[in-house]
Amino acid sequence: MGNLLFLAGHARLPQGMAARNVYETLTITVEIDRKYGVIVEASCTLATEHGREFIGRLLKGISLKDGLEEPIRILQENYKGKGANALVAAMKDLYSQFEQIKDK
């Protein structure tokens, strides 16, 4: 377990989303392999279990060491709900945290 790192990225949810009734922000959480930056597990605070699992499957296996373009492209191409912009913003926030710690 010492080779895993847990990161979270946050973004404001838009009006009209079911998750907004529970959360003010959308959060994406990931477990990443420290050496390779690969997402081992991912989740988010979408309202439905199906949505949370779907985002987890989309992001699993992506290496953050390869940059932010691929996870954003994957989210934009495959998630068409109201939370799409919040997911992208949360991914950008998560990636900025990864950038801060990756060289340590």
TrEMBL record:
<dbReference type="Pfam" id="PF12986">
    <property type="entry name" value="DUF3870"/>
</dbReference>
<feature type="domain" description="DUF3870">
    <location>
        <begin position="6"/>
        <end position="98"/>
    </location>
</feature>
<dbReference type="InterPro" id="IPR024617">
    <property type="entry name" value="DUF3870"/>
</dbReference>
<protein>
    <recommendedName>
        <fullName>DUF3870 domain-containing protein</fullName>
    </recommendedName>
</protein>
